[in-house]
Amino acid sequence: MHYATHSIAALLGTSLIALSAQAGQTANFRLLIDDGVTFDETIYVSSISADGTTVVGAEVRASEQFTPHVGFKWIHASGTYVELPERARGIFDVSGDGSVVVGTSHALIVNPGQQDRASLWTTNGLEEIGPLQSWAYAISDDGAKAVGYAWTGPDYEASVWENGVRTAVPQTLSHRSRALGISGDGGAIFGWYVRPGEQADHGSFLHYVGGQPIALELPVLDPRLNSVVRTRVNEANADGAVVVGTAVCKYDLMGSDGVLRPNREVSLGWIYRHGQGYELLGSFNDDNRISFERTDFESGFAISGDGNTVLGYDSESRSMIWTAVEGTRNFEDLLVDAYSIDLNGWTLSPTAMSADGSTVAGIATREADGVRTAFIVELPAVINVCTADMNDDFAGDLGDFGAVGAAFGSALGDVNYNERA
């Protein structure tokens, strides 16, 4: 599938989004527990619809042997909570309008090692789309394509389900692969594969429909790094031109005792723009003794449709938000300082973001007693005074017209493709 760039006229209506509040603007913070829904055991929140209306996740009931997950949909504007019927084993994603949920169901057979099945939950109930020993992890915004993997006999195979039919994601990288995500438009699929000759360490792939998979291998972007052990892609933007993820890297640590500890591992968040390459997200401690020991963006796991906003965590598991305009900020600090939200003793762990980047969902944990619930935050979209910036100079000028002209007529995969032009 090809993605044509916009015309030069698009410059007239293009702006950058900033996360700074202007006078009189407020953000809406809401907890599922406020709608009268409580959980006996722990929960997770896996996704939010592209339109920001519907949050999906599951309660994990360890006391139930074969169906420990009870899936749910939370339509937060109306306060509607819907428990998904029938045998959920994992709830992972939702279509753009919130009507189709994808995940894994429990097949009613004796052997628990072979019980999982890729499934959809719609207004008609449960639809098992995969064979035994198959898993579905993501769905396109229109609900037409689900991706995951299935056991094919010799190994697992990255798979796409469309109209109830499974096809393999073309692989030239390895015989063993798993698809973990899909772009909103369904044109790009990503996941991981086991490198030939290896058993555990794996690389990531990005496959554009109609083409061959691209191996996503973070290069050594900093001289203090010795090597990149493995690269994991976590999420793609609306058309798959921008992806984010985590890389496990090795570096040498000089301890406070003066002892050198070689090849210490650290996780670093990264962003990849098709045709432009990789960039490390955030920053890290830069003294000679403990460089990389504390990073402020260890993992990027959610991205807005335009690729300009990323959610992630730092090395101390604090939630962070990165934007192309303002860089990295602590997510909770942003809510408190910029929008004067009173978190009232709740710690937030965001896990998902709407396509326009204005609605964030995740898990809230009450510090006093450990109670967990789902939350959403709706942030007002604030237009930055710097408009139509196509070349990252934070100005709208003739250079941006040149950037659009250079990309004019190109398509995703072309050398001169610019996903913002």
Q: Tell me the overall shape.
A: globular
Share of residues in strands: over 45%
| Structural classification | mainly beta
Strand order of the largest sheet: 2-29-28-27
What level of helicity do the residues show?
under 10%
Average pLDDT, all residues = 79
Q: Oligomerization state of this entry?
A: single chain
User: Which ranges are low-confidence, i.e. pLDDT below 50, for 5 or more consecutive residues?
Assistant: 1-19, 286-292, 382-387, 392-399
Largest sheet: 4 strands, antiparallel
Distance between the termini: 18 Å
Number of strands: 30
From the structure above, extract its key features.
single chain, 421 residues, mainly beta, four-stranded antiparallel beta sheet, disordered N terminus
Describe the structure.
With 421 residues, the protein is mainly beta. It has helices at 331-339, 398-407; strands at 15-18, 28-31, 43-48, 54-60, 69-75, 80-83, 88-94, 101-106, 116-122, 125-132, 134-139, 145-151, 156-162, 165-168, 177-182, 188-194, 202-208, 214-216, 225-236, 242-254, 260-273, 277-280, 299-303, 309-313, 319-323, 327-330, 346-353, 359-366, 372-378, 382-387. The strands form 8 sheets. It has a 4-stranded antiparallel sheet, with no helix packed on it. The two termini are 18 Å apart.
